[in-house]
Structures are given as C-alpha cells and as structure tokens.
Design goal:
The protein has 239 residues and is α+β, with helices and mostly antiparallel strands. Helices cover 29% and strands 27% of the residues.
Length: 239
C-alpha cells in the first residue's frame, strides 16, 4: 500500500485530498523535486535539497521545513515502502487561497505533498540500442532553472515526439541545444564530454552534476559550452 505525506499527516496515497482552491491546482504555483533511492539509500540528497531551496527562493515560496525535516521525511518515505529502489516525489505549492487571484496573498501556508514509487531499471535492450529523438523548438518560459510544477510545454513537446514516432525530444533555442523534455543533454566528441552551460533556460540536473564530476575524476575532458544542431548531428554519442 502506497502512503503519502500531506501537510504533516500520513495517509493512503489514493485517499490524499487537496483543496481545488490550492494555488498549485489553479495556477501551477509550486515547485517539486524527484529524488532517486538506490538500495534504500537516497542519492545526492544534499544537492536535491539545495535545488529545492533555489526553486522556493526564486518563486518566493517560504521553505516550510528545515533540511533535517526534509531528510527525516525522505527516510520515513523509504521505510514505509518495500522497494529496494524508489523514486521520491516532493511538491511544495504556495498554498490555499480562498479567492482565485493571480496575486498571492501574504502569509499563505505552503502545501507539502510527498510520496514514493518503485524505481524500475530501463530495459537492457533500450540500453543497448538507445532511443529515438527529434529536435523541437523550446516553447517554455525563461526561468527553466526553477523546477516548477507547470510542465505543460514539456508534455506538449513529449507528445510531439511520440506523434513523430520518436521516444523523446531534444529542445532547441536560437539554434542551440538546451536539454531534453525531462533530462539534460550531453554529447561525446572523441574523448571529450560536452554539455550546454547552465543558465536560466535549463535545469541544473543533479545527475548532470554528478556525471561531470565523475568524468573529470576519470580523466575525461569536460566542456560546458553551446552545442549547435550541426554539432549534435556530428557527435559520436548523445546522452
């Protein structure tokens, strides 16, 4: 039985209830994190909490918990579910506002929701053959460094990829690679790993951060620089 944490209380996931007047429901006014768990140990929790704080600060939503509170919540989520590998979902919205208005009222109480899913590995065949991607123009806003729950553009671009017979889309802006619909993009050129530099147009992925560190430690050359469409097509590998 999956359990959820909602505003300080545990409940069955399918019994969790959020007011339709919550600003997250009406406006997508909230942020989130997805944190992987391997062998019942949280992966890179510190960087995930740092990114959550960045998103909350950028949207001026007060952080309802301390880092220790978040750590305990993640620990409790893991313990309440049987899976060895899990995916923890944490969402914080600005909270419930009695009157629908674009301008948020002061002193709203953030809504905190969290639950866990089993994290299943990708099929071995997919790891061997890779996936099919198309390139699409990035139609999102200019603050993609915020991990916001407003993901409609990502959904639309993912649907466009599926309609074209592909698995995912690589987003382009002004002729340059940005990221995927739900991941960063890296290319391999000989023994060099290249990925677009961080700015407000893409999310600072935690996996990206770890991979760049591991690549440098392994002696690979790492470059954070713009990737054109031509360079993307000429890459030895894309991932």
């Amino acid at each position: 039985m999956q359990q959820a944490w909602l505003n300080g209380e545990w409940c069955k996931l399918d019994e969790a209830r959020i007011s339709p007047l919550d600003r997250g429901f009406l406006f997508g006014d909230g942020v989130y994190e997805v944190i992987p768990v391997y062998n019942r140990k949280v992966f890179a929790l510190g960087p995930h909490l740092k990114r959550l704080q960045h998103s909350l600060s950028a949207t001026r939503i007060p952080n309802p918990y301390t880092d220790d509170d978040w750590r305990k919540l993640c620990h409790d989520l893991i313990q309440r579910h049987p899976w060895t590998n899990q995916s923890l979902y944490i969402q914080v919205t600005r909270g419930l506002q009695p009157k629908r208005d674009h301008t948020p009222e002061n002193c709203l109480v953030p809504t905190v929701f969290a639950y866990s899913n089993e994290l299943t590995p990708l099929p071995e065949s997919l790891l061997q053959t890779g996936i099919r991607c198309i390139t699409v123009e990035d139609i999102r806003w200019m603050r993609c460094d915020i991990k916001a729950i407003t993901l409609l553009p990502n959904i639309m671009m993912k649907m466009a990829a599926q309609e074209a017979g592909a698995d995912d889309a690589i987003l382009m802006r002004n002729g340059m690679v940005v990221e995927g619909t739900a991941s960063n993009v890296m290319i391999v050129e000989s023994h060099t790993l290249v990925t677009p530099p961080l700015d407000h147009c893409l999310l600072g992925g935690i996996t990206r951060q770890v991979l760049l560190h591991v690549a440098k430690e392994s002696g690979l050359e790492v470059k954070e620089e713009p990737i054109s469409l031509l360079r993307l097509h000429q890459a030895d590998e894309i991932w």
